[in-house]
Amino acid sequence: MTDTRRRVKVYTLNEDRQWDDRGTGHVSSAYVERLKGMSLLVRAESDGSLLLESKINPNTAYQKQQDTLIVWSEAENYDLALSFQEKAGCDEIWEKICQVQGKDPSVDITQELIDESEEERFDDMSSPGLELPPCELSRLEEVAELVASSLPSPLRREKLALALENEGYIRKLLELFRVCEDLENREGLHHLYDIIKGIFLLNRTALFEVMFSEECIMDVIGCLEFDPSLPQPRRHREFLTTTARFKEVIPISDPELRQKIHQTYRVQYIQDMVLPTPSVFEENMLSTLHSFIFFNKVEIVGMLQDDEKFLTELFAQLTDEATDDDKRHELVNFLKEFCAFSQTLQPQNRDAFFKTLSNMGILPALEVILGMDDVQVRGAATDIFSYLVEYNPSMVREFVMQESQQNDDDILLINLIIEHMICDTDPELGGAVQLMGLLRTLVDPENMLATANKTEKTEFLSFFYKHCMHVLSAPLLANTTEEKPSKDDFQTCQLLALIVELLTFCVEHHTYHIKNYIINKDILRRVLVLTASQHAFLALCALRFMRKIIGLKDEFYNRYIMRNFLFEPVVKAFLNNGSRYNLINSAIIEMFEYVRVEDVKSLTAHIIENYWKALEDVDYVQTFKGLKLRYEQQRERQDNPKLDSMRSILRNHRFRRDARTLEDEEEMWFNTDEEDLEDGEAVVPPSDKMKSDEDLMDPISKFMERKKLKDSEEKEVPTGKASLSGRQSPSFKLSFSSSPKASLSSPPAASLHPGSPGSPSSPGTGARSSPPMTAVTTKGGLVGLVDYPDDDEEDEDEEDADSKEESPPLSKKSKLSS
After folding, report:
1. Which of 74-88, 115-129, 401-415, 765-779 has the lowest mean pLDDT?
2. Consecutive H or E run containing 728
3. Tell me, what DSSP letter sits at residue 244?
4. Which of 106, 169, 457, 572 could be joined to 448 by an S-S link, Cβ 3.0–4.6 Å?
5. Contact 139, 187 (CB under 8 A)
């Protein structure tokens, strides 16, 4: 299987009429029992897997093109091609195909049979061949009619193609074209247009090779200028000879390569500009033209890549300071087109191509080019850089890390890219969007390598946050020094949105690197300034950034948010949005809903203690009332530590019930007492760190007002009814310290729970008397205490200690004593 004669690339034609590379392997022909016939088999050279298994069907038309290609159609709109490394291998397989079909190997296409009437098929097969009229001026109309009538039938197309090829008819037609043009014979020129267009639709490589030869191609383009449907002829030849100039930025010494470049450009021009847009029925008839261009490009890239002298001269001039700007502009455009052509290569050859460019010093050359003032040159350099990043981001990362050891931060390649992104003059920031995508690829840990000796992720991210992150965040920090963005125009906001989106990506993927940067540089507070922007898309970017941070449920982030009161700009944005039902409204509510559903205790307490007064009137969603309920449950458990121990005792004895039953009873209990909960108000000692905002409530005074109201209603309410609050209900008799100067320096141990931040912004509870004995009474007697599933870990930690204490007996009407 190592015979290079049989080494092939397998291509398939996609929906866009472009050839897709399916892999490289070795081809053989063998009888396949499952397919009941001789078949072409291609096995991958990498792992021996089967790339192709195709039965040689007697009715399938196989074409041999350019001595090393075999092309055929497996089914409707499914074309295949084998590209051989050597001509000898192509000839061997072609002989096998012709042997199965009973054809002469000297032909370039095997005849195909399609469904036609028996009479028509007999007529076609009985005639020895197609006779073409003499190539004379007076017979052009007859030739045009013959070509048009042959196109619908594949057999007639084949016979017409053979006749044109064998008699050298195309060259005779082109001689007539020159005569007609000299005589200004418009009718003859119109007939020649129809004839040449029909020859294109024959889809025959052998005819294309004649038509696209150096001496014929310009006359072929001339014939296609005289479209009968147009009042005046086109001027394609004038464009190709005077306007379109071949710029040989580096002298090409190989005449064959130069001729191939000229040919490919002209054929591409014919396909894109000269030929009329093919109809639905004609589209598949031009597949060979697509293939001709595709394989020409592959040849050009291969020939240039093998010319070491050419590439050495190219990169020497690119990096030479003496090279003038115009010359460098041409060199960059050539390199960009060269990289674009490389996309036609199969993966293995593309590896070699980019490795060659890397060895030649393409990245240092790009660094020089990106430092130029010419916008077009920088744009071309950006496109080249994108090819490199998309192909091999690790290669780019390795270069910039080595570069950082020798150069200052200002001239690092990545920092140049960031600066071009920031300074993009396009109002829509098209270039900045492209560059941001490249940066995202470079900092994405998913495509970073991990080896036994080193971890690319650790090394590169450490480099990036040390040398590049300050450049990326500079526009954000400069624009958010006040309570509102200092510049709020559309272009600035769009740039800031791109930066925040990349920072959001970093939060999700970079863990401790971005965490240290955000907390040390106070990035979240700066980003939340953008919620005051007049552009909703930027405000939403800022909210997404904070939502991503909260979603990590990281207590370092939570303490940072509480210490700096970073929910304040979010609440302000929510209130400023008013009653409008829009994305900002939904995004903010979703953020608070997440805190409630996930029961992030530290944030729940922080939100209710500092922003409840601003949010308590929002009743079109239950999010904020649900947060308050979570908060009161949490405070109740902190203030009544024995409640948890009693739950543990009940769970461990005969009172334990099925978890699902318990959940149902909890739900019923919560629902029945919801009205009482809304009437009640938790007592929250004010934090000495709390901002003196006039919008924030005074919890002590509000509690006293509520208490007076409750006292006046107590006479009418039955004393046996229990409330979840546990702080205002008559069934719970607890003593509170009404002093507003509650100690905040050292919260009692009962108020701590796993993961609780020990920051000044998380106030403890006030001084209390000795720990109360806990029981709950209702009108009908003893009820099971609620098992809070969120505190299972707490319960397990405290069970041993609590079980040592004596549990009071549960009487039917026992009360809590203070």
Report:
1. 765-779
2. none
3. S
4. 457
5. no
Handedness of CA 721, 726, 728, 731 (dihedral sign): positive
Share of the chain above pLDDT 90, in %: 27
d(CA 226, CA 224): 6
Two tokens, residue 351:
């590896």
What is the tens place of the pLDDT at every residue in 188-205?
A: 999 999 999 999 888 888
Helices and strands, number each (H, E), in the chain: 35, 9
Nearest to 340 by CA among 388, 306, 276: 388
44 beta partners: 25
CA distance 111 to 399: 56
Q: What share of the chain is helix, strand, coil (3-state, %, to 5)?
A: 60, 10, 35
Q: Is 198 helix (H, G, I), strand (E, B) or coil?
A: helix
Q: Which residue has the tokens 């039955």?
A: 718
| Alpha carbon distance 353, 641 (integer Å) | 71
- Confidence tier at 646 by pLDDT (50, 70, 90): low
Name the pTM for this structure: 0.59
Contacts of 166 (CB under 8 A, 6+ apart): none
Q: Write out the two tokens for 53.
A: 């298994």
452-460: which pairs have CB atoms within 8 A and are 24 or more residues apart? 456/394, 456/397, 459/401, 460/397, 460/401
- 420 phi and psi, to 5 degrees? -65, -35
Sole residue written with tokens 């001689």? 175
Interatomic CA distance for residues 630 and 602, integer angstroms: 11
- Other beta carbons within 10 angstroms of residue 438's beta carbon come to 20
Alpha-carbon torsion angle 807, 812, 816, 817, nearest 10: -80
Q: 21, 347 in Cβ contact below 8 A?
A: yes
Torsion angle of alpha carbons 40, 44, 48, 51, nearest 10°? Answer: -50
The distance of Cα 315 from the centroid of its chain, to the nearest Å, equals 32
Tokens 């916008």 appear where?
375
b/e map of 742-772 (b: 16 or more CB within 10 Å)?
A: bebeebeebbebeebbeeebbbbbbeeeeeb
What type of residue sits at position 303? M
Helices of type H across 277-426: 287-306, 308-319, 325-342, 347-360, 362-370, 375-391, 393-404, 413-422
- 258 Cβ contact list (under 8 Å, min separation 6): 248, 252
Q: Which residue has the tokens 């030479």?
A: 320
293, 264 in Cβ contact below 8 A? Answer: yes
Contacts of the segment 194-197: beta carbons below 8 A, 24+ positions apart: 194/144, 194/147, 194/148, 194/228, 195/140, 195/143, 195/144, 195/147, 195/223, 196/220, 196/223, 196/224, 197/224, 197/275, 197/276
The Cα 508–Cα 503 span in angstroms is: 9
Q: Which helix (H) or strand (E) holds 31?
A: strand 19-32
Residue 36, Cβ neighbours under 10 Å: how many?
A: 9
Q: Which residues pair with 31 in a beta bridge?
A: 38
Could you tell me the two tokens for 381?
């350099």
As a residue count, the chain comes to 818
The H-assigned helical ranges of 564-683 are 568-577, 583-597, 601-615, 623-639, 641-652, 659-672, 674-679
Q: pLDDT tens digits for 96-144?
A: 888 888 787 777 777 544 444 434 444 444 445 678 888 888 889 999 9
Is the predicted pLDDT of residue 272 greater than 80, yes or no? Answer: yes
Type of residue at 344: T
Cα–Cα distances in Å, from 685 out to 511, 689, 750, 811? 35, 12, 16, 34
Beta strands (DSSP E) in 395-549 are: none
